[in-house]
Amino acid sequence: MPDNPAKQTSEEVDQTQLDLARQAGDAYQEALDYMANEVAHTGGKAEVDDYVVGFAQEKAEGMYVLKDEGQTEWMEPDDENCHLEVAVADAEDGRFVPGCTVVATLTSEDGEQVGPTTVPLVWHPGLYHYGKNLTVPEGGTYTIDVRVEPPTFKRHDEKNGDRYDETVQAVFENVDIETGQG
User: Fold this and answer.
1) Cα separation of 14 and 19, whole Å?
2) How far apart (Å, rounded) are the C-alpha atoms in residues 105 and 77?
């Protein structure tokens, strides 16, 4: 659990709202577990201070990119051979935390590093997350170091808003990275 006490009723939120937030967080965590354990090649998660930080890894994939107002274009990966997804959620209620700066570094067993690289927000029909296609030298065992810098958004509620104010780091060791394009 985070250093903050459990979220509580206040002048900004009642018990029903807290219960609904937890239900939304439970659904998000279920979607994260499904993505990391059933859809992706590999994944995991760890609780770090105010956050749950999760990751999923799969082959590089195409995405729509906004080119101009009202105009998106499908972009296939170029030389990228790895797609890294990072989920950042509230450790208390499990909901996605937007607006974070997420930076990832992958380090192979022989010490070769990919990154650090900023991992931007990606809209996904099943799971909001931060994600990016990367180029890694080859598949194999890596350490994934994820740094989450605090979001700059304002926090509502004098009793519950004192959170997400420090940079945290989650390290996932012995991760089997699968390369290619999907």
Assistant:
1) 9
2) 19
Write out 111-124 in H/E/C secondary structure.
CCEEEEEEECEECC
What is the spatial distance between Cα 161 and Cα 176, in angstroms, rounded to a whole number?
Answer: 37
For the chain, list the domains and their CATH numbers: 15-177 (2.60.40.2480)
The count of other CB atoms within 10 Å of the CB of residue 165 is: 11
Structure tokens of 36? 């990391």
**Count of other CB atoms within 10 angstroms of residue 34:** 15
Would you call 82 helix, strand, or coil by DSSP?
Answer: strand
Whole-angstrom Cα distance, residue 89 to residue 52? 5
Handedness of CA 26, 94, 13, 152 (dihedral sign): negative
Q: What integer best gives the mean pLDDT of the chain?
A: 92
Side chain identity at residue 168, one-letter code:
V
Q: How far is CA 95 from CA 90, 92, 125, in A?
A: 5, 8, 16
* Tens digit of each residue's pLDDT (9 = 90 or more) over 75-90: 999 999 999 999 999 9
Of 53, 11, 76, 5, nearest to 149 by C-alpha is 53
Q: Are 181 and 48 in contact (CB under 8 A)?
A: no
